[in-house]
Amino acid sequence: MSVLRVAALQMRSTTEIARNAADFEKLVREAAGQGARYVQSPEMTGALVRDREALKDQITSAQKDIVVGKASELAAELGIHLHVGSTAIAREDGKVANRAFLFAPDGSLITTYDKVHMFDVDLDNGESWRESATYEPGRETVVAGIGAARLGLSVCYDLRFPQLFRAQALAGAQVLTLPAAFTRQTGEAHWHVLLRARAIENGAFLVAAAQGGKHEDGRETFGHSMIVDPWGAIVAEADHDEPAVVVADIDVLASAAARAKVPNLANARPFEVRTVAASGAAERRAS
What mean pLDDT, rounded, does the chain reach? Predict the structure, then answer.
């Protein structure tokens, strides 16, 4: 069966993991009640805590994390693929991972993914972020099978690195995922266009569950969770920043159809970059 009903959960995570776990469960049950067989939550489902020490005081290992445990239970009870977009996990080496978890319908863990690209930016109006001060970046991308679909896993700021999604598409992913906590400032500027671009250039569906609204730690996120088809059309969207469930039926065969129409994955060729000095007197080549 090539048609899959998918859901993106829009949350407004607080600084308290137990409260967020309860909100997560409510939204997962709502999505499953609407027939979703793959359900994705946003980045930092467990907690949004800007203060590094306060975050480290409450996080734990994946084996003890209550959101991770609840996700496994819900996946088994509801018979769904459940994707915790990410949550903060204490690593054995004392560092912190921004880690996604994908569970099978029997509650078993299929795979994890640690966010590769750290959001280290200085925006307008004094908004500044240094994720690398808290999190250890991942070193690999992941493509995982769920029935007839192959998912490419990523998190938030990864969206700005198209080479990651291209690698996933070349590895067979027909559905790209982008759980996020996009800031309002960057979301208003780039969220829609970047999501649609990643779907179009890879001929893939893209499911993006987002955080939305004003959070307890002072940040404000953009919301607008959405599902995009391989031709770049937004097939479902939460057109706001309130908690919500976004559901759509996707036919994974549409990915192959889009790639047949515009076979850019197959047509790509190696090339070099040649730079020429203003005088034309010197040049440098780079592969």
Answer: 94
Please compute the mean of the pLDDT values over residues 174-184 and round it to a whole number: 97
The answer to whether 156 is a known catalytic residue is yes
Strands 142-146 and 212-214: unpaired
Q: What gap in Å lies between CA 52 and CA 40, rounded to an integer?
A: 26
Q: Are strands 175-177 and 205-208 parallel, antiparallel or unpaired?
A: parallel
Amino acid at 118: M
Element (H, E) at 222: strand 220-222
Burial 180-203 (b: 16+ CB within 10 A, else e): bbbbbebbeeebbebbbbbbbbbb
- Which CATH number is 3-286's, of 3.30.1950.10, 3.60.15.10, 3.60.110.10, 3.40.50.11720? 3.60.110.10
Between 162-170 and 192-202, two packed helices, what is the crossing angle to 10 degrees?
30
Strand extents, DSSP E, 64-141:
81-90, 96-103, 109-114, 120-122, 128-130
Whether 64 is catalytic is no
Active site residue 214: no
Catalytic site residue from 43, 73, 131, 201: 43
pLDDT level of residue 131 (50, 70, 90 thresholds)? confident
Residue 207 has pLDDT above 90, yes or no: yes
Could you tell me if 185 and 123 are in contact, meaning their C-beta atoms sit under 8 angstroms apart? yes
Q: Look at residue 164 and tell me whether its pLDDT is greater than 80.
A: yes
3-state secondary structure of 225: coil
Question: Which residues have a Cβ under 8 Å from the Cβ of 219 and sit 6 or more positions away?
Answer: 48, 50, 181, 183
Contact 88, 46 (CB under 8 A): yes
Q: Is the pLDDT of residue 83 over 90?
A: yes
Record the tokens describing residue 214, joined without a space.
């004003």
Residue-range domain boundaries for the chain: 3-286
CA dist 184 and 243 (Å) reads 15
* Token pair 């080496």 in the structure block, residue: 93
